[in-house]
Each structure stands twice: as C-alpha cells, then as structure tokens.
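Anyone up for a design puzzle?
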C-alpha cells in the first residue's frame, strides 16, 4: 500500500478543532484514520460502510472474521445498532460509559457483516477520550476502530507507534496525547441465553475489572478464552481471543512464580543477551539486560507501560524475553491476558522459593 498519509494535531477539542473536523471529514467520506482513545489508538472507519471497514482490515492485515468494535459518542447512538437494549446494558453504561468498556449485543440490520466479522452480534463502546468523541461527532457516523497497528503486533499507545506501523497505509494519523489506560477495553457479552435472559460473560479483561462488573450486575461468567488457548476454528465474539496478539518480534516466555523463583529461573535458563521483563522488585535478582514494567502490585502502571515496553524490545533487537507473570486480580487479569497471547501461550511455572534479600 502507498497512501498519502497526513498528520493532524489535536491535543484537545479547542485548539485541535480544525484537526478534529478534518479527521471527521475523512472518515465521513470513506477514508480511514488512526485516532486516540483512552485505551489504545484505534484505526477508525465508518462502521456502517463495508468499503471503509474493508480498508481497515487491509491496512492492518487483519483476518476478516475478527470482529471490529464500533465507537459511539452518545448513549442514544446505541439503540440503532442493536436489536434491543437490555437493562444490564443500561446499568453498565451508567457505571462505566464513557470509558474503557465494550458491550456485545445482538446486532441490528444497520450493521454490516464486514463490521461484525460475519457474526450476528455487534461490539459497541463509548470512549472517554474527548478528542475521540469529538472525531466521532465530526464524522457523524459510528466508527469501527480496532487497534491502529499491524495485526498481531503490540497495540499502539502513542501516535508515534501509529506512524511506525501505518504510515502510507492510512489517510490520516491524529497526533494527540499518549493513551492513559494502555490496554484495550474490557469486553462483556450481554447476549441472551436459550431462556431469553441476558447472560453476562467477560470475553476480554481490561481496565473495567471483573470485580467491578460483578458489583454492577451480580454474577458475570468468565469465558474460557480469557485464560486459555481456544481450539482451531473456534468462533469468537470479541477481538483479541482467537489469534496470537500483541507480540513483539522476540520470542516471549511467561514465567510464573515469586520473585526469588523468577530470578533463579533466569539464572538457569537465560542465554547471554536474552532479556528479562520484570517488576521493579525483581531488578536486583534479574541481572542484565532487564526492563521493568512496574511494581508487582501496581497493575494499572503495568497496563500503561506494557505495549510500549514490548515495542522497546523490538527497538533493542531482543531475540527472547522472559516476562515475570503478574497476578490475575483486578487489572492484573488484563495484563496477564495480553501477555499469554504475546507469548503464544508459552508459560512456565518456576519453582516457588522463599523470598530472599538481594
């Protein structure tokens, strides 16, 4: 591909008004553009235009059976996209919209199959980022916007990442603030079961945690694809479930165990020049070369740093990296979910050891 890509600067909705209007015009006319959200940068196109969504798949090199998330700017924009709005959707929207939560519902005929990946459901969210919502309003249409990267590589959390991946492949890239959350939105299915009742099911963890979802709705099931590799040919209703995702060029090995066990595992298995990606507390035990992605208990910081660090490993030319696995509570579940996919489910259990002082 060899498109002419333009850079549009919009750090807020006032000084960036001209850029926001320009991005909206490009999207309204069938083009595609990388835009900021609070989670990761999205590659946006008109969600109701099959030709525009086809351009998204082509630019990313994304399999066409991988559904796209539709982004809206106001609550009333949800109803035309779905067959009905259940009470559970109202509760979640009141608690978490605008914000990093995607709801999956049976789709209305308005949504083309190219947007839903051929499924009879549609994934919808209302981003919190004001520039993103400004662009949606300027476009005048809901926007399909998967992560603005080449398919399978670490998601982009800065506009510079979008330039690295998509320059010459898209019509525009919006230069704006770095993403605050750092991992993609939480995805919850609100589709009815055989009895017609809504059966909330977590499909992809994110900054809105499982604990928060259960506080809002009561029981929420967790799909097996959150923590397990799905079988070949499985039908999935959320992005990030079916294929290897988020991966740097390096071979990623995810290591479970306490800090002492992780340090011992590195001593026994790491070859010279192979990297450790660990918690701040691990650095004295990890040896060199090593990069920290946050404190062990600070899952939000881990999420915010994760994809930038995976891209940094590519810049450093890393061939293999041993990542200390986070705990799977709160936002840690989202970080772990991304890492197991980046590792292609290469997970090892280091023998638990009594913590030692370095």
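Challenge accepted. My sequence:
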């Amino acid at each position: 591909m060899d498109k002419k890509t333009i850079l549009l600067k919009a750090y807020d909705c006032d000084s960036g008004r001209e850029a926001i209007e320009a991005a909206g015009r490009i999207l309204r006319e069938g083009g595609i553009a990388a835009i900021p959200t609070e989670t990761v940068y999205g590659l946006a196109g008109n969600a109701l235009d099959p030709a525009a969504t086809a351009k998204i798949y082509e630019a990313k090199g994304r399999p066409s059976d991988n559904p796209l998330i539709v982004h809206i700017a106001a609550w009333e924009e949800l109803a035309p996209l779905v067959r009905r709005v259940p009470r559970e959707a109202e509760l979640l929207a009141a608690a978490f919209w605008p914000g990093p939560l995607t709801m999956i519902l049976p789709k209305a005929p308005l949504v083309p199959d190219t947007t839903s990946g051929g499924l009879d459901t549609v994934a919808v969210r209302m981003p919190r980022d004001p520039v993103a919502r400004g662009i949606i309003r300027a476009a005048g249409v809901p926007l399909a916007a998967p992560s603005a990267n080449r398919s399978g590589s670490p998601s982009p959390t800065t506009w510079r990442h979008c330039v690295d991946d998509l320059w010459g492949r898209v019509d525009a890239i919006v230069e704006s603030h770095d993403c605050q959350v750092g991992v993609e939105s939480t995805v919850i299915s609100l589709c009815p079961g055989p009895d017609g009742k809504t059966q909330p099911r977590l499909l992809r963890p994110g900054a809105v945690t499982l604990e928060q979802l259960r506080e809002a709705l009561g029981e929420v099931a967790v799909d097996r694809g959150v923590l397990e590799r799905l079988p070949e040919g499985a039908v999935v209703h959320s992005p990030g479930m079916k294929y290897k995702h988020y991966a740097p060029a390096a071979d990623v090995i995810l290591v479970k165990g306490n800090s002492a066990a992780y340090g011992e595992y590195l001593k026994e298995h790491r070859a010279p020049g192979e990297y450790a990606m660990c918690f701040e507390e691990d650095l004295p035990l990890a040896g060199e070369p090593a990069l920290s992605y946050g404190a062990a208990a600070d899952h939000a910081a881990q999420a915010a740093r994760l994809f930038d660090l995976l891209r940094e490993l590519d810049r450093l030319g890393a061939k293999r990296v041993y990542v200390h696995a986070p705990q799977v509570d709160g936002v840690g579940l989202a970080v772990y979910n991304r890492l197991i996919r980046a590792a292609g489910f290469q997970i090892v259990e280091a023998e638990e050891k009594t913590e030692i002082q370095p």
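A detail worth pointing out: Residues 299-315 form the longest helix (17 residues).
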